[in-house]
Amino acid sequence: MALLFNRTQFIQCRKILFCGVILACWALPGLQSAFANSQYALSNAVYTHEAPQINVINVLSNSKLPLKNEVAKLYELQGFDLIWSDGNQYNDNARQLVEIIQQAERYGLNALDYDLEFIQYFLDATSVDPSLLNRSDVTFTHAYIKLASHINHGKINSQQTAAEQQSVLLSTLSNAVKQQTIGAAIEQLQP
Question: Per-10-residue mean pLDDT for the chain, 191 residues long?
């Protein structure tokens, strides 16, 4: 009996299907408006030679992300610029994040808690899909904040100064993004 796919093709199809299911569950609300906004942001960047910006409010308005307030705050600190790409290619920050998540066990954490397969799928695409630009950037950012928070405070956190801790954490993360030193920032967060 002839096989329809070789092993490599089967694995690629499985990854695409897995990511498609996750994306459908997470991203369908407001997908048309996110597509329109990402197209506008990309065309605006081409004509004005500015870095594409993200419409966080549109992306997060229908989201059920547990850290969506922190995600919005980090983008605010970044001037709402894309963090993980230039609008066409993923940057070094994106590659550093994947490497750090792959080593989550080193911090006593599980890499799957930080959407590793989903983020790896985006990164393996090598170029940014314009229709998913905003959503992929928010996905990377959410994983970044979640991982940094778990490394810094642990997965189980007392509520005494959670708001203060998040404020300091977001400032640290924002500075690391600007300086492209997210690896060093993550290392410094360990208790």
Answer: 49 53 47 40 41 73 86 92 88 94 93 91 81 86 94 68 71 90 84 63
pTM: 0.60
H helices of the chain, in order, are 7-27, 31-48, 56-61, 68-77, 92-102, 116-124, 133-153, 162-179, 182-188
Q: Report yes or no: 97 and 84 within 8 Å, Cβ to Cβ.
A: yes
The answer to whether 51 and 96 are in contact (CB under 8 A) is no
Q: Which two tokens stand for residue 91?
A: 């940057």
* Cα distance between residue 84 and residue 141, in whole Å: 8
- How far is Cα 145 from Cα 149, in angstroms, rounded to an integer? 6
Would you give the DSSP letter of residue 6?
-
